[in-house]
Amino acid sequence: MTNLKTSVLLLIAFALLLATHQLTAQNTQLKSPVEFMPNKGNAPEVLLVGTFHFSYPGLDAYKTKEEDKIDVLNAEYQKQVDELVEYIALFKPTKIAVETGQNTGYLMHDFREWQAGKAELKRNEVHQIALRLMQEFKLDTIYGTNAQSAIDKFKEFPQAASYIEEMFEDYDWKSDDPFDIAYDELYTYQDKVMKEISLLETFKYMNSDEMLKYYHGAYLIGDFKLEDYKGVDALATYWYSRNLRIFRNIQERLDATAEDRILVLYGAGHIPILKHLFECSPEYNLVNFNSLDK
């Protein structure tokens, strides 16, 4: 009988201990990582704007057919550019980073000539979008943050140079991978549908989370699968290296404060990697392009 009482008492004590532990666990408020950061999440906001190249320089692997190109200098498209810029202006940028080299003296010259009525804006996205926003928000600086990859540095070392030459030997964006064919169809569709919808609708489509995911996916098929790790190393050495350097340039050259609102205007292919970097960095707060009017 005594043993039974002892067992019951031990069981009750264990149950009380377990209940106390569960109650304590339920009352424990887990801290957000932001609480450990020196800025406590108080950081400059960043808006990434992925674009097609208005002047169609033909430097990318996919090239728009002549009949599918649009002329942003056409009067109808100029109205659409105004609408697009008006939408982006909802972000109220204080600093603008663009896909050019660090020396932006020529852009500032073009900007002043346009302000003085001595020149028209040229057929490229920096002129048509960034310079218009500089005018609207009375900004006196534009930041060129483009970068090349680390390949040139690696080529200084004979063994690395030999391997780089080997891994890029067949990395030419030409493949019989069915996904490569599908991407050509996707890009062709995008070129054609652009003539049926407005520039603003096009940009909302291009900068949607779904499209950005697929833009990045284009780099993970075809030549990415070259034997062993040749395609993998080529992508890391060229594309990832370049975008990491672009991110570093933005960090270094803009010298942003928590009050800044940074607009980053780049070709859409860059945006998925930059999006990941800005999302993960505790130094910035990323704003979704399609949320500006919500």
Average of pLDDT: 92
| Oligomer classification | single chain
Number of strands: 5
- Main β sheet profile: 5 strands, parallel
Q: How much strand?
A: 5-15%
For the termini, the CA-CA separation is 72 Å
Radius of gyration: 26 Å
Total DSSP helices: 11
List the helices and strands and how they pair.
Elements: H1 2-27, E1 45-51, H2 75-88, E2 95-98, H3 105-115, H4 125-136, E3 143-144, H5 151-154, H6 158-167, H7 178-193, H8 199-206, H9 209-217, H10 230-254, E4 261-267, H11 271-280, E5 285-287
Parallel strand pairs: 1-4, 1-5, 2-3, 2-4
Helix pairs in contact: 2-4, 10-11
Could you provide a short overview of the structure?
The chain has 294 residues and is α/β, with parallel strands linked by helices. It has helices spanning 2-27, 75-88, 105-115, 125-136, 151-154, 158-167, 178-193, 199-206, 209-217, 230-254, 271-280; strands spanning 45-51, 95-98, 143-144, 261-267, 285-287. It is built from eleven helices and five strands.
